[in-house]
Amino acid sequence: MTDFAPLLQPDRGQPAHLLYTVRKSGFDEWFAGQPERARGALEAALFKGKAGQFALIPGAKPDDWAVALGLPEETGPWDLAGAAARLPAGTYRLAEGDAGPAALGWLLAHHRFDRYRGEAEPIPERILLTADPARIDDMVRIAGAVALVRDLVDTPAADMGPAELAHAAEAVANANGANFTVTQGDALAQGFPMIAAVGRAAIRERAPRLIELEWGDPAHPRIAIVGKGVCFDSGGLDIKPSSAMLLMKKDMGGAAHALALASLVMQARLPVRLHLLIPAVENAVSGDAFRPGDILRSRKGLSVEIGNTDAEGRLVLADALALAAEKEPAVIIDFATLTGAARVALGPDLPALFANEDRLADDLIAAAAAVSDPIWRMPLWAGYADMLKSTIADINNAGEGGMAGSVTAALFLQKFVPAAIPWAHFDTFAWRPSAKPGRPRGGDALGLRAAWEMLRTRFGG
Q1: pTM of the full predicted structure?
Q2: Which of 314, 343, 415, 439 is catalytic?
Q3: 50 catalytic, yes or no?
Q4: Beta strand 126-130 with 209-215: parallel, antiparallel or unpaired?
Q5: Residue limits of the Cytosol aminopeptidase domain (predicted)?
Q6: Pairing relationship of beta strands 331-336 and 423-427 according to DSSP bridges
Q7: In a domain, 132, yes or no
């Protein structure tokens, strides 16, 4: 894990190179105010303040140089990420103002997933000075949480099965003094029959389990965070084509988000009683695999007809949500890489948000806007519940007709959450198909910062 703490330091007047942040709309005025030496360098670099442009400005002495960086018209957390990835090692401060939210992009530009590289190229250490030292710890924690999601999702399934996911959760629990438990074997089959059924086809070393973490004062408001931990999804007997399996190492991305959010709650000492639940399975193919047409009994007692074994994520989440609800939390948040339908509707950047309470949805949307972590609310449209009807069980796990797939998946989950408990469901991609400044191609946290901002605002006092 990248150590972000040294990269963001309080500004105590120490020597540093200046960073001039310029927008195209204000370029002419800014350019006119620069000394002749600087104007010549900027003209030679064809610098016009366009977003992403970059130019070095020489000073009077060889070591006295500065940097001009073109920014988009609207500020955001990734404004400095492009520069942070290209600058020489050294210490920097903004010529005007403070980095604010853009410090996150500065930090994450230094993150690399290099576990499998023979000799990783060292990353130059670029230190950013800030006049707002009170925010340093929080920014470093958030960067660490995003990096945790990326590292877990990027790890191949051979090295990130249910057992390894449990080890990762245990490490977070131990680091924060949380209680950690794992339920598996007969106890899992008895208490969480759908988690056991989905994961039973995997080999013994990759057996299914329910991972739990509890932390905080029991007198504080209880919150539950649930994450889908399908460590690899073959589709089961409704097997996926090979092209659809290429990214299925990321099907535990919901669990990665949930674990990272739990770590933020604990590191910030939020005054809550935290309950983290991760149903961890591999949806494999064997003679013991659950089948289309099977009827599974859920923890809640509802019977579920299996219309599609590739709709397994909602099954394991349902048992975990049922347990979370039994504790009567003040709020439940779940993350899951649940449906391709959400990606068709909203693309890779926008997690679909479903919520059974308008206030919770509004708070999450406001939090997402505040931290530039976009989400989009989708409807829990009750009229589509008929698509999940079964003639022989209480509900079918897969809607008929192929329409409204993300909505019917959310409606299935809603069956396992009492209406009195505020609940939010993020159908997130957990993956970035193409690189952007500070955001390499690969696993990514989408919706994590929005959820954290909502919890921090609501429960932080």
Answers
A1: 0.97
A2: 314
A3: no
A4: unpaired
A5: 308-315
A6: parallel
A7: no
